[in-house]
Amino acid sequence: MNQTLIAVEHVTKTFPLPEGKGDFTALSDVSLSVRSTEVLALLGRSGSGKSTLLRIMAGLIPPTTGSVTNGGKPLAGPNADVAMVFQGFALLPWLTVIENVELGLVAAGLERHERAKRALKAIDMVGLDGFESAYPKELSGGMKQRVGLARALAVEPKVLFMDEPFSALDVLTAENLRGEIDDLWNSGAFPSSSILLVTHNIEEAVLLADRVVVLGSNPGHIRGEIQTALERPHNRNDGRFKRLVEHLYTVMTNPELEVAADSAGGGAPKKRSPYSRALPHVRVGGISGFLELLLDMGNGPQDIARVADRLALTEGDLFSLIDAVRLLGFADVAGGAVTLTPLGRDFASATILQSKEIFAKQALDRMPMIAAIVRALHEKANKSMRAEFFLDILDEYFPLEEAKRQFATAVDWGRYAELFEFDAVEDRVYLPDAPAIKSA
Ligand SMILES: Nc1ncnc2c1ncn2[C@@H]1O[C@H](COP(=O)(O)OP(=O)(O)OP(=O)(O)O)[C@@H](O)[C@H]1O
Ligand SMILES: [Mg+2]
């Protein structure tokens, strides 16, 4: 039991940026396996590559590098052991419930009688009996998603993939369906041996999953995993359940924290090195310009696609900028829109001196790498250190070229904020109040 079903190893996925502007990395060096008899949840923020990873494991798209295997064999083309439930239901409006459910079975080449038998069984399982000949438009959202689920279950896939299956449903409907799926799994009547569930919802992950894998962003990567190790059905009132949910909240809102199962048992999660948390590659001038533009566009949320359009950029071009302003606390990002925070408005409308002060405070508070550089310089009597010192540390966490870019970005930010200076001739970083560097 518990053998590996689907495995990705060192998988990277890049997408070409428009107009030949290089590649966008959606997933970087991801290794993960789906084992038999487990419910595995992938938890991560929007853009962390969850759907991309699912599509790769389902064989719908190939990885750029790395390997994908199913049952130990390299996967080439759609994974026959997988059926997928989509967030948007993906029903065909001109087909009835049973016809929609039979779709996957037609593809599997089953004959008519067997198709009907399996479809009816699945419809029954999701509580839709009596609605076989209804059309999708006659159904509520919750019932539509039941059809989506029945369609996947009818195939009796070894692994059921669910990509945010409840996020288009209202809270109560989602909770009902979630509970029913959990009951079905716990009863042992579930037709699949494993479930891979993608979600944004921390409680949902802990409620349903045996193992929660947390993805980080920029680029998408695996931060760590947690074994829920709870008795089934998972009880929300259980102390460990609550601690796990709390721990995952902490981890999800602090990208520099370690996702360790043992820290969920109690105590604070362990800190990762401040140098491992990447800075988004944007210059301060770019950040200011972007914030000024947002300020010009007025109050309230601005649609990211519209901002991109006005700047003649793609949403991908804006990615690092948006990430930078969000990380610095200058804007909030939700539902495809970006909103200036009061601090972001101040920064964009202040004098250059005030802007520098605001930027310095935010960079120190929220950018661990900047704070660590300043701290290290303070430790030195002459308030100065060789650039190599920082490059060596960064080299532990990033490929060499990226380590150099990280350092260049840190220097750009540090200089603007007047937190530290960089002397390219001496190749040294120093505090603004450091004694003058003597040439050797
Ligand atoms: N076909 C594609 N071409 C270009 N970029 C893509 C493509 N598919 C995904 N991406 C990019 O890759 C990143 C990861 O996307 P993905 O949809 O996997 O994220 P996700 O974690 O599922 O996000 P969400 O929670 O919003 O569904 C995003 O920045 C997205 O814009
Ligand atoms: Mg997605």
Brief digest:
The chain is α/β, with parallel strands linked by helices and 440 residues long. The protein has 16 helices and 16 strands. The protein binds adenosine-5'-triphosphate (ATP) and magnesium ion (MG).
* Biggest sheet details: 6 strands, mixed
CA-based shape:
elongated
Name the structural class. Answer: alpha/beta
Query: Counting H and I runs of at least 4 residues, what is the number of helices?
Result: 16
CATH topology value of the largest domain:
Rossmann fold
pLDDT averaged over residues:
90
Word description of this protein:
The protein is built from 16 helices and 16 strands. It folds into two domains: 4-81 and 157-264, P-loop containing nucleotide triphosphate hydrolases (Rossmann fold, 3-Layer(aba) Sandwich); 284-430, Arc Repressor Mutant, subunit A. The strands form four sheets. Strands 6-7-8-3-9-10 form a six-stranded mixed sheet, with helices on both faces. The longest helix is centred in the middle third of the chain and has 17 residues, at 171-187. With 440 residues, the chain is an alpha/beta fold. The protein has helices at 50-57, 97-107, 112-125, 141-154, 171-187, 202-208, 239-253, 261-264, 284-296, 304-310, 315-327, 342-349, 352-366, 368-379, 387-397, 400-416, and strands spanning 4-16, 23-35, 39-44, 65-70, 73-74, 82-85, 159-163, 194-199, 211-216, 221-227, 302-303, 331-334, 337-340, 384-386, 421-423, 428-430. The model has no long low-confidence stretch (mean pLDDT 90). The termini are far apart. Strand 15 (421-423) and strand 16 form a beta hairpin. The structure holds adenosine-5'-triphosphate (ATP) and magnesium ion. Adenosine-5'-triphosphate binds at residues 15, 24, 26, 44, 46-52, 220.
